[in-house]
Amino acid sequence: MTYCVGIDVDEGLVFAADTRTNASVDDVRVHRKLHVFEYPGQAVFVLMASGNLATTQLLVSRLQRDVEEQRTPNLRGLRHLFEVAEYVGALLVDSQVKCRDVEHGHDGVNTQATLILGGQIAGERPGLYMIYPLGNAISASPETPYLQIGESKYGKPILDRIIRPRTRLDDAARTAVVSLDSTIRSNLSVGLPLDLALVRRDELRIGGQLRLSGDSPLYADIHRNWAHRLEQAVAALPRFPWEQQA
Amino acid sequence: MTYCVGIDVDEGLVFAADTRTNASVDDVRVHRKLHVFEYPGQAVFVLMASGNLATTQLLVSRLQRDVEEQRTPNLRGLRHLFEVAEYVGALLVDSQVKCRDVEHGHDGVNTQATLILGGQIAGERPGLYMIYPLGNAISASPETPYLQIGESKYGKPILDRIIRPRTRLDDAARTAVVSLDSTIRSNLSVGLPLDLALVRRDELRIGGQLRLSGDSPLYADIHRNWAHRLEQAVAALPRFPWEQQA
């Protein structure tokens, strides 16, 4: 399984993903699911993937090749983010079919993948899309300023309570880390380390990138700090009628 | 769908359940899922149910009848909580079959239900069981001091972070309300009002019972207070390396 979350606030975009992949419970590995495509001053994209790893790795390799060989279309050549979503969606559908072909008709393997794609192209505002296995896409909106793929339920309540378009970008990133941390704590199929990337509006480059592992002091600090503050928050909630007034 | 959580801490037991039942998205109703069986000084039990409503209502009616008619076994007659779990489990299996019979062979209906049963019998410590559709049961333990049935993922992280055997009973109840509130906010199939019941160790009666609806001031207060404290907690988390030191 996987858990990735993308957040679209006024100040920019946040991307956070875990790195655990498993073919079964005794075949667990670490693979990067957050991929950066950076063309400073011109465009910046971040792609996160859940689903079949062969499909998503093939997709990423093809995206890079199309830019290097200046094929049409490619990530540097498109002028609108929705066109990039269409292009990536078409490539995703093709990669899913390709990965199934490789299996020589072994149809039991699910080669589907779901993507979160976000970024900014010069002249446009930043945007965030979810791309489905069929290649179609939906975008985040002010009412729903985040998108999730994979094991999304554990990490959803904190996003619902905190994330608004006016949330500060770094606070949105802290919320994303907490959302990942909650999921990792409650579900074995999502695991550390986690990758984090920020795109600040109109900078047209990556505004911050980080890998947090279990032994990184910042992660341990966030984890401990959060648990402590939640305990305080629970203890400070209103009293029930049967509790004596202090 | 449904969400119920039972918590077993040193000071006693907490039970919390939503009240939404739905046959489909346009057939949504409110039904009690938390049932109290109180025999002061002798024994107290709380039963929560997810699954087929006909099954669980039949089960509750039978439990009451067995006590009234002094049948063997019945809730007042058993001396150990694990025997009560066995008795309720057997009655659950029978109610599932009975509800299917009523359908005259209409096998498409799923009459299964899953239960959380907790309470205390004089002379024993309090206990908490999950009873599966097959009639078998597992109990909570110091390492896993809570049990959930229904739509459990949204409300799990807060329980994982807060609930320990030494957590105060009223704080455990506050955590249960937050766990319910998080689920209700993130998932349409779980809805207000919510029922809450407490059993304090060795009191052998209900130590507090409450129905919280959307317009009850206490619920609104907890909801608002929690959102506010979470925002503060996020803003107070450690800074990322790219943030300027204040």
TrEMBL record, chains A, B:
Transmembrane segments: none
UniProt cross-references to Gene3D superfamilies, sorted A to Z: Glutamine Phosphoribosylpyrophosphate, subunit 1, domain 1
GO biological process, one term: proteolysis involved in protein catabolic process
SUPFAM superfamilies cross-referenced by the UniProt entry: N-terminal nucleophile aminohydrolases (Ntn hydrolases)
GO cellular component, one term: proteasome core complex
A Pfam family hit: Proteasome
InterPro entries, per the entry: Ntn_hydrolases_N (IPR029055), Proteasome_sua/b (IPR001353), UCP009120_prtse (IPR016545)
Keyword Transport: no
Keywords: Proteasome
Protein name as annotated: 20S proteasome subunit A/B
Biological classification of the source: Bacteria, Pseudomonadati, Pseudomonadota, Gammaproteobacteria, Lysobacterales
